[in-house]
Amino acid sequence: MLSLSVGDDSVAAGSSLREPRAMAKYDLIAVYIMASRRNGTLYVGVTSDLISRVHQHRLGNGASFAAKYGCTRLVWWEPHADMVAAIAREKELKRVTRKGKLALVEATNPPWRDLYEDFLPPPR
Length: 124
What we know:
Elements: E1 30-35, E2 42-47, H1 50-59, H2 64-68, E3 73-79, H3 83-95, H4 98-108
Antiparallel strand pairs: 1-2, 1-3
């Protein structure tokens, strides 16, 4: 079972996002897909700290492509044991057609929910 640390329910001024607590590098190595909306623009990335990286994307501080096209929803992710394997998988997914990426999301997340919410505690 995956155990993750997340921040409290406080909200930064001017932000409706709950920020995760600081985590050590390599807490959750993952390849992930961010989307602007259902069937919208897709961004494929790799990280050693999924929760913090997705939070950066949601604030518009992630990759410039993702920020430019509003890719703020985590719609798919895959954990990896090490960065070498994760980087290889990211490169593989970047070569997959758009149709293939859409099928990957649809297979595991048909409603295109923002999976980042799964890592946060419920609001009080």
